[in-house]
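S.,

Sequence below, as promised.
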Amino acid sequence: MSEPKISVIIPMYNAEKFIRQCLISVLASKFAEYEVIVVDDCSADNSVAEVEKLQPHFGGRLKIFSTEKNSGGAGIPRNVGIKNSVGKYITFLDNDDMILPTALDDFFHAAEKFQADVVYAEKYLILADNAEFSFNNLKAELVEVPTLESADLRERIRRDVAKKFYILPWGKFYRRDFLLENVIDFPQMRYAEDVTFCFKCLCLAKNYLRIPNVTNIRRERENSTAKIFTDSREGVRLWLESLSKNMHLLDEFMSGLEFFTRNPDLQRDVLRYYIDVHFGIIAELFYGLEPHEVTKIFYDELQNPALDPKGKDIVAAYLFAEFVLT
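The prediction came back faster than expected:
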């Protein structure tokens, strides 16, 4: 078997119900020069057995790795996948999602033609629990032909904070050496581990390509575990931990780039935007809480000494400013 050109990385945890469909969607790909790397995060069900059943059908292209202990998120398993991958390009697929048969082919040829570090498919399909498909996308400024994002970082940041990009690692295609050379990986956190990963890719990619192709099928489940916290305060606290860490990581990353040293206003805009992103997610997940209740929990929990001091200070400063100015 020749060296694979694409590594499809799938983090997996308790996915016995969906992982078979996920893998079969890859098996049906028009593009065959790939490897699949499934990284099991200590599943407590029969997920690994379901993957092993399909291994013979992949002709050596399906590999299984495991984390030493459950990490509580998808970031660490994805890092394990990156470390063990050999493809020129990497794409991530969640264990309950699928890709279309043309996805890998579309990604690969677009990346090769434009010498792209990142290829970003703006459209995707949603498969709801009732098994009905529907389209989803940014609903703004979608490209009709492959289009390179401006090389002007100011313009990229302007578009980012205007919500022109979705902050998710799937639906994208990455040159593996680009990730390794820039040390772009996922931090260990339970939620929102993709924020700094996606932002670094946006800032550091020389060629960031947007394509009109539909590549991914996103499964939308009504009983997603993210929405069933029995203790709202505990759920908000966990999100605050991720928010605090992300603010520290973003601030540290931007402080190391000359561009942001020369444009501190943009650095502040980015931090403000991603705080709002986190609050928007929390508002969706904890629909039983009023905004002032969420803010109160945040104020209380910001006193927690276990939180990252830098990230905590950034969040506290913006919350205080918002409180004073409104």
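The chain has a mean pLDDT of 89.

Coffee later?
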